[in-house]
TrEMBL record, chains A, B:
<dbReference type="GO" id="GO:0071949">
    <property type="term" value="F:FAD binding"/>
</dbReference>
<dbReference type="InterPro" id="IPR004113">
    <property type="entry name" value="FAD-bd_oxidored_4_C"/>
</dbReference>
<dbReference type="GO" id="GO:0016491">
    <property type="term" value="F:oxidoreductase activity"/>
</dbReference>
<keyword id="KW-0560">Oxidoreductase</keyword>
<protein>
    <submittedName>
        <fullName>FAD-binding protein</fullName>
    </submittedName>
</protein>
<dbReference type="InterPro" id="IPR051914">
    <property type="entry name" value="FAD-linked_OxidoTrans_Type4"/>
</dbReference>
<feature type="domain" description="FAD-binding PCMH-type">
    <location>
        <begin position="45"/>
        <end position="223"/>
    </location>
</feature>
<keyword id="KW-0274">FAD</keyword>
<dbReference type="InterPro" id="IPR016169">
    <property type="entry name" value="FAD-bd_PCMH_sub2"/>
</dbReference>
<dbReference type="Pfam" id="PF02913">
    <property type="entry name" value="FAD-oxidase_C"/>
</dbReference>
<dbReference type="InterPro" id="IPR036318">
    <property type="entry name" value="FAD-bd_PCMH-like_sf"/>
</dbReference>
<dbReference type="Pfam" id="PF01565">
    <property type="entry name" value="FAD_binding_4"/>
</dbReference>
<dbReference type="InterPro" id="IPR006094">
    <property type="entry name" value="Oxid_FAD_bind_N"/>
</dbReference>
<dbReference type="InterPro" id="IPR016171">
    <property type="entry name" value="Vanillyl_alc_oxidase_C-sub2"/>
</dbReference>
<keyword id="KW-0285">Flavoprotein</keyword>
<dbReference type="InterPro" id="IPR016164">
    <property type="entry name" value="FAD-linked_Oxase-like_C"/>
</dbReference>
<dbReference type="InterPro" id="IPR016166">
    <property type="entry name" value="FAD-bd_PCMH"/>
</dbReference>
């Protein structure tokens, strides 16, 4: 909760200007009403916004942008608020634009295999709307029941199937965007390539810094005829990590390739009863999808590779119900953590696949260094880790230790050639880690491109891309502890 | 050839500054030496450059950029010069940076499946260098024997396999770039996603306007165990076009899906003896690759779909030699055109797949309107057309008619929801068509992003993105003919 009070005079001025241009009940300024918007999925950070707006159409979005530009008010766009990096954290003197009322599926074109939807449409609602044509929208973040396509565009969301089917950027064809200048631009096209600069790719994953999306054209893919999943057990995590590399090296691209370590398995099993091997040090879930023949062949090949990579036990789902049960454990790993630990901190980093074993060993060492447990669940196929650091916020110092543990994991990811985020974005949470990931020249280039879209720098400012000042402060913070920058992070 | 003479004083000044910072024989300023650089694959446009530079390493690239920035000299980067849209067309008072000497394969990592190469390395040389590991670099433009990876990055090149394996943007992980400020930045990473703005995607296809690439990290993929290709005949092009849609609608993503109309087939067959059906109005080539079982199943499914879509004859390659022969006809379509027509103009547009039949009919009508023949060869699977307009430059007015015919095809592409380029880029050739494709707001956004990378606007200026002035002139050109802009282009 914010300690600094909102300037009520300013609030009334901006609210009045917004109310003059918007229908009734589209502008919330009473703290009672704006309280639900004070955080997103990264609930450790909270800030009551000055005002929340709820536009119902593109013209209302433009009206809000015009008011904010004229009055120099910073803007934070917000989908379902399920983001895990604080990208939708409000600003004390800012306006939140909620896409909650922009929730219409405009058109499904089964022939062209596209759907045009407003940004507030839920991820899963798209697949539900095209199920009748045997089509679905591929990216499936864990939050897909709740999260919106606008938020997916902002964060370039992935999911357990993104190894085979790609991230949001690979599944969105076009966006309509309201700019801070109060104009509408369209980025992308239904064609495979587009002339001009690929601003669609820049926009996807830009965390609300470049414009407000008002419409999204997504690609739909045919639902595979069938799917089966293998659960393979390993005696140690390093062997499991190497097995992932072996599957990929064999030229197989599984529809899903997930790994869970013993702690995750033991956390989940009593809760979900997925049928997991609780004696294994790690399990792999490897899915094949396609026609019955394709699936049978791929399952057979994967089984062979996993066995020779050292799997101690292998189970293959024998029915759709069993397949869903195998997945339910993985999908419920985060809620399960809540049952055994008062608090948990879900990290998100990406590493080259071949470094899996090294990073897992590193995280094990960090558990001792920081005196906290960490369970590992991850999209192994694309090297996207989701370490869950368990802590108790009521124990003095544990939250800080958890944060330092998380930063150390990210530093290790960068050290082995990976990145500080896989699919959760930078937001507020990892803005300091961006100073570790990038040099000043790259960060300046990011800011220059942001300025090309947003001259007054009002769109979700101070998120995602650190300013030189911020990186200098971050560096100083470390230097003042008597060491060089980052030298106080554990090295491996 | 340029009618305007180069200012020799200026040339000597710039050449001297360059020679002071570069090794001997890296700076060409004598017209005898610079003549080979006066055009690229779009040979109808020619311009002798003021100076050509041949850097051998990154430091020399930076030195050239520093001199050009200090002396305000525009720069045109150049790979093998195989580009078809004039992207490497020199500038009268500009410097060409040739990547010919930046031709080292730095490292192949078979385990990570990546290769790090300098920009002047030929596309096919990458695959040759990793053949020993059973890996290859997937994008295969027709010019792959000659064209360079730097040029592929500039144009976001595709090829006959890009439907399944993606364009350059999907196969490049990282680029090192020398900026106009004389700095080195790295865009992208080896991870699936990267934090910050996706400037890698913006850079790929940016036609040399944002920086000079000095190193490229590409993704390698395993060579499929086997492949087979179907040749299917159709009685009319519309049925053939619809069959393409049916294959895709059946959920099949062929490794290649190419279409040739009767004129292309008859042009090619006497020359290549590919075994094509010269009685068909159109033929489709549909390739399956993968394991033997996968290929057998996909060939069987595709055969079924093609038959029920109206194929009159179907032949399946029975050996690798036959498969190569089927492809050789397609790959030699352009040289074959040279045998039956003094000149030809290869267009490149992209349309939604479902509009194939409509656009083919439109092009047929245009043949009558413009009094020129057009043979159609295209990447049907991804809707990327390559109409070959045949003409004789020695007949007065034919070149102009061919250009107008090409512009009309592109206008039709835009009208049906497609784009003015598939994989050849905008360059010089299509800069006016960009005014048809985009509104001023989008073009201004492109220019703003260009300016973020290139404040002095020296990198390949006046290519790819038209200025407001240029679009105004283009509009006026059409208006002065007594009609609204573009109204003098044939409409369908």
């Amino acid at each position: 909760m914010s300690a600094i009070p909102i300037d009520t005079g300013r609030r009334e001025q901006v609210a009045a200007a917004l109310r003059a241009r918007l229908p009734e009940r589209s502008v919330l300024s009473d703290p009672e009403d704006t309280r639900p918007y004070e955080c997103d999925g990264l609930a450790a950070y909270r800030q009551l916004p000055m005002i929340v707006t709820l536009p119902s159409n593109e013209d209302e979005v433009l009206a809000i942008l015009n008011v904010c530009r004229e009055l120099n008010v910073p803007i934070v766009p917000r989908g379902a608020g399920t983001g895990l990096s604080g990208g939708a954290l409000p600003i004390l003197d800012g306006v939140v634009i909620s896409t909650a009322r922009l929730n219409r599926i405009v058109r499904v074109d089964a022939y062209a295999r596209t759907a045009i939807v407003q940004p507030g449409v839920r991820n899963l609602a798209i697949s539900e709307a095209c199920a009748q044509y045997g089509l679905y929208y591929a990216p499936d973040p864990s939050s897909q029941i709740a999260c919106t396509i606008g938020g997916n565009v902002a964060e370039n969301s992935g999911g357990v199937h993104c190894l085979k089917y790609g991230l949001t950027v690979h599944n969105v064809l076009r966006v309509r965007v309201a700019t801070i200048d109060g104009e509408i631009i369209e980025l992308g096209s239904e064609a495979l390539d587009a002339p001009g600069l690929d601003l669609l790719a820049v926009f996807i994953g830009s965390e609300g810094m470049l414009g407000i999306v008002t419409e999204v054209t997504v690609k739909l893919v045919p639902k595979p005829a069938t799917a089966q999943v293998i659960m393979a057990s390993f005696d140690d995590v390093v062997t499991g990590g190497d097995a992932v590399a072996s599957v990929i090296a064999a030229g197989i691209i599984p529809a899903g390739l997930e790994m869970m370590d013993r702690m995750s398995v033991r956390m989940v099993e009593p809760f979900v009863k997925a049928g997991y091997d609780t004696d294994a040090a790690a399990i792999l879930l490897c899915e094949a999808d396609g026609t019955a023949l394709e699936v049978a062949e791929e399952i057979e090949r994967m089984t062979r590779v996993l066995r020779s990579a050292g799997a101690t036990a292998i189970a293959v789902s024998q029915s759709e119900a069993e397949r869903m049960r195998f997945w339910s454990g993985r999908k419920n790993a985060f809620p399960a953590a809540g049952r055994i630990s008062p608090d948990y901190y879900c990290m998100d980093g990406t590493i080259p696949r071949k470094k899996l074993a090294q990073v897992l060993t590193g995280i094990e060492e960090m558990e001792r260094t920081f005196g906290l447990r960490c369970s590992n669940v991850f999209h192994a196929g694309d090297g996207n880790l989701h370490p869950l650091i368990l802590f108790d916020a009521n124990q003095p110092g544990e939250f800080e230790r958890a944060e330092a543990f998380g930063a150390a994991i990210l530093a290790l990811c960068v050290e082995v050639g990976g990145t500080i985020t896989g699919e959760h974005g930078v937001g507020m949470e990892k803005i300091n880690s961006m100073c570790v990931q990038f040099g000043r020249k790259e960060l300046d280039m990011f800011l220059a491109v942001k300025r090309a879209f947003d001259v007054p720098m009002l769109l979700n400012p101070d998120k995602a891309i650190p300013t030189p000042h911020r990186c200098a402060e971050f560096g100083k913070m470390h230097v003042t502890k008597g060491a060089l920058p980052f030298a106080d992070l554990p090295r491996f």
